[in-house]
Amino acid sequence: MPQTPYTEDDVIEAMLDVTDNGLSQHEAAQKHGMPQTTLSDRLRGIPPKPEVI
């Protein structure tokens, strides 16, 4: 499955949607085009994985 491109800004906006706007993690992840596990990890304070070249 190809990886969908999303930016750090997308992650931040999704995090704000969850914390400030009351969206579920699933809804925010879909809205911003990222995996829900990525959003969940970031909300728990887990840093992003480095890009593999």
From TrEMBL:
Occurrences of domain HTH psq-type (ranges): 7-48
Region Disordered, residue ranges: 27-53
MF annotations from Gene Ontology: DNA binding
InterPro entries documented for this protein: Homeodomain-like_sf, HTH_Psq
One Pfam family, short name: HTH_psq
Domain of life: Eukaryota
Transmembrane segment boundaries: none
Protein name, UniProt field: HTH psq-type domain-containing protein
Organism: Fusarium oxysporum f. sp. narcissi
Source taxonomy: Eukaryota, Fungi, Dikarya, Ascomycota, Pezizomycotina
